[in-house]
Amino acid sequence: MARSGKVNFRELVAFRDKLEELADNQEEFIESCAKEIAARLLAKVVKRTPVGDYSGNSYRCASGHVHKGHKVEGKVGGTLRRGWTVGEITKVGDAYQVEVINPIEYATYVEYGHRTSNHKGWVNGHFMLTISEQEIQRDAPAILEKKLQKYLQASLK
Question: Is residue 44 domain-resident?
Answer without folding.
Answer: yes
